[in-house]
């Protein structure tokens, strides 16, 4: 008797077993396997990227404060640098970043315009609790910045942050109809430039913690730890391995001994 073959025209006998895969299951398995393996390596790449970001954050936050000119000389990568600048706050121009909570209490982060060297720097002064209703804004504490030696300017220190303009929101902010303070759903530095007669710097300054400021300054970088991505990668690779095992088991049959 001749050996029977599957729809693929392929059959493999080993020991008392005969492996005979069908064409459609084979194609589907290959496609799914490629997808699962690629998802696993994608998560591995994300884990490596997060490790780089955390290492960069740890290194830069240990640096001495830089000046604005020194910072801008670094190109487009301006995040996580200690920075000290002089200028003056434009207290009448504050943005309230909505949907920010602290210890389960709803509130806002307050970003106030700071004019320095002919440019606007948005200074994140920290979190405050929401008012009695969404229609009534809370009272924003007055600026308490260190004056320069001649008393004509103010000096502020903090760490730079570059918010992503791709942050998902249900409704985009309308920068054509603004009243101050202005409620925003996300920080968009490019659109914020429409609000001022000066160019807006491509980063935000997060001020150093100060209990007397009236703000809560507990900055979180929203960086998922690399260990989670490694966990996801393991899951995808495990699914790929399980798929191969199922494919082999389903398409393998036990042969009968022929006399």
Brief account:
By secondary structure, the chain is α+β, with helices and mostly antiparallel strands. 28% of the residues lie in helices and 29% in strands. It folds into 2 domains: 73 residues; 133 residues, no CATH class.
Describe the structure.
This protein is an alpha+beta fold and 259 residues long. The protein has two domains: 12-54 and 225-254; 81-213, no CATH class. Helices cover 28% and strands 29% of the residues. The protein contains four helices and ten strands. The chain has helices at residues 23-60, 68-72, 189-192, 226-250; strands spanning 12-14, 17-19, 82-102, 105-116, 119-129, 146-147, 154-161, 182-184, 200-207, 252-254. A five-stranded mixed barrel has the order 3-4-5-9-7. A three-stranded antiparallel beta sheet has the order 1-2-10. α1 packs antiparallel against α4. It starts with 11 loop residues before the first strand and ends in a 5-residue tail after the last strand. The model is unreliable at 1-5 (pLDDT under 50).
């Amino acid at each position: 008797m001749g050996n029977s073959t599957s729809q693929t025209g392929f059959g493999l006998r080993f020991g008392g077993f005969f492996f005979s895969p069908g064409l459609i299951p084979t194609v589907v398995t290959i496609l799914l396997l490629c997808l699962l393996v690629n998802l696993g390596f994608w998560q591995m790449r994300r884990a490596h990227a997060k490790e780089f970001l955390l290492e960069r954050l740890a290194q830069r936050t240990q640096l001495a404060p830089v000046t604005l000119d020194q910072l801008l000389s670094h190109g487009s990568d301006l995040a996580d640098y200690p920075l000290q600048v002089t200028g003056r706050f434009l207290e009448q121009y504050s943005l309230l970043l909505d949907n920010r909570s602290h210890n389960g209490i709803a509130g806002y982060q307050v970003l106030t315009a700071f004019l320095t060297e002919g440019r606007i720097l948005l200074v994140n002064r920290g979190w405050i609790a929401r008012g009695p209703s969404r229609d009534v804004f809370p009272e924003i504490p007055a600026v308490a910045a260190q004056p320069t030696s001649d008393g004509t300017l103010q000096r502020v220190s903090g760490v730079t942050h570059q918010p992503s303009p791709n942050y998902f929101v249900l409704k985009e902010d309308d920068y054509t109809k603004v009243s101050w303070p202005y409620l925003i759903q996300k920080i968009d530095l490019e659109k914020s430039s429409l609000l001022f007669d000066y160019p807006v710097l491509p980063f935000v300054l997060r001020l150093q913690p100060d209990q007397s400021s009236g703000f809560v300054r507990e900055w979180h970088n929203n960086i998922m730890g690399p260990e989670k991505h490694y966990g996801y990668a393991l899951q995808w690779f495990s699914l790929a391995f399980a798929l191969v095992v199922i494919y082999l088991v389903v398409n393998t049959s036990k042969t009968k001994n022929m006399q």
